[in-house]
Amino acid sequence: MNPPSTQFAVGAEGVVAYQVFGEGDTDLVFITPWVWNIEVMWEQPLVERFFNQLAAFCRVIVFDKRGTGVSDPVPVGAVSDVGRWSLPTLEQWTDDVQVVLDAVASERAVVVGNMEGAQMALLFAATHPERTSALVVLDGAACYLRQEDYPM
Predict the structure, then answer these.
(1) What Å distances lie between residue 84 and 45, 74, 145, CA to CA?
(2) Which residues of 102-139 are buried (b: 16+ CB within 10 A; e: fewer)?
(3) Which of 7, 37, 139, 146 is least surrounded by Cβ atoms within 10 Å, i.e. has the fewest?
(4) Is 33 exposed, middle or buried (0-12, 13-18, 19+ CB in 10 A)?
(5) What are phi and psi of 25, to 5 degrees?
(6) What is the chain's pLDDT, residue by residue, as a tens digit (152 residues)?
(7) Nearest to residue 27, comparing CAs of 5, 63, 55, 46?
(8) Which residues does 126 contact at the CB level (< 8 Å), separation at least 6?
(9) Which residues have C-beta within 8 Å of that of residue 143, sequence separation ≥ 6?
(10) Among the residues of 14-144, which ranges form H helices?
(11) What does the DSSP 8-state code read for residue 114?
(12) Widest Cα–Cα separation across the chain
């Protein structure tokens, strides 16, 4: 399969790049890890094979979170409440899922979160159950840093 064309959805907080490919009655939105680029991912044969297999039975939707890949960059000078450079919050990134689903006219989708995308998938499914037909978590973790209540 040739790489699908990249499209852009305009959300309240910026532009989100996305691709849609495959056919089927089921929509599947794949939330990628943090360091990802939907245009470059097709250069990796195993990734291409994985997505081709998904596309054989469903319509697959992938996107770059704002601040990553070919989506809008984080605004210059963006800082967190502690004065450090800051990416969008998990909640803001989760809004990107809804922006993309709206752009492709998807009412409900299987939500798949991979690695750092797992938290986004969980949050989206919890806050938008009406738009989530199923939830899949791949290589996810509840926390990435050791905590008192999460010793890893």
Answers:
(1) 37, 13, 19
(2) ebbebeebbbbbbbbbbbbbbbbbeebeebbeebbbee
(3) 146
(4) middle
(5) -80, -15
(6) 788 999 999 988 889 999 999 999 999 999 998 888 999 999 999 999 999 999 999 999 999 998 888 998 876 655 555 555 567 888 988 999 999 999 999 999 999 999 989 999 999 999 999 999 999 999 988 777 778 887 76
(7) 55
(8) none
(9) 150, 152
(10) 45-55, 90-103, 117-127
(11) E
(12) 47
Distance CA 7, CA 18 (A): 5
Please name which of 73, 64, 70 lies closest in space to residue 100, comparing C-alpha atoms.
64
CA atoms 10, 106, 18, 80: torsion sign: positive
Do residues 147 and 117 make contact, with C-beta atoms less than 8 angstroms apart? no
What the block records as the tokens of 31 is 């939330």
Global confidence as pTM: 0.88
Cα–Cα distance, 66 to 120 (Å, whole number): 13
